[in-house]
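Hi P.,

Sorry for the delay on this. The queue was packed all week, but I finally got your sequence through. Input first:
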Amino acid sequence: MSDQSRPYAIHSDNECDRLERQAVLAGLDRHLASLAALPPPTCVLDAGCGSGSMARLLAAHYPNARVIGVDLRADYLDYARAGAEAEGLDNLSFQQGDIFSLPFSDGAFDLIWSKYVLQWTKEPALAVAELRRVTKAGGSVVCCNFDGFAVTHWPEDQELQRDVNRVFEGLVDPFVGRKMASFFLDAGLKDISVEFEPDRLFTVVGQIDPDRRHNWVKQLTAARPHIARILGGEPEADAFIERFLLGPPRHRKLHGFVFRSGMRGPK
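Then the structure:
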């Protein structure tokens, strides 16, 4: 982990399995619609590929392109390679690398994809600049990021909301999505567009379903030591996790709105 990164607080030995299940819950193939207007790429980078689910989708969708997935963790890359081999994706490979110092030459890719990565960084603008560096002239950078992740609820319980803000602002940047256009401009990207869509993974209206609740439980359980550090102890962390999953006492529901922002460039 570089100095510009936050700890990946939700890591566990089973994180790649969780990421694969999360990809199904999110309807990963819907992301291809945001790429439909782009010319077919010849070289694609999935920056922060995790379990490799999106890299596999990109490799299958662009069979004539070379697709590379990059992640910091060697164990995630082993998992990703096994998945690609199982699907027979010969145009897909994986490398260990830091999003702040990618192991590629300038202008190596004509399409770069990054999703749910920049919220885990302290200096997302520097990461965007590095993505810009390895993008060909006329290529595209697409970043999908939350805005208001896990901290937007209604009705609010004031005591719970105070702890929600403390915890999630201590773990991630919940509002990185709204900052992306500025980062893209500062990096020198052109023809920037911003698209908003309601999150289908973490946003719940009414009773949360078992699969999405399980996804939350796995993440919060893995993050428990970090939550304990933020709130001052393990009992406080356990109480917070229980209250968060239940939601405001009057409704016992989890609510939220989160949005994805996607930008493309440079010319």
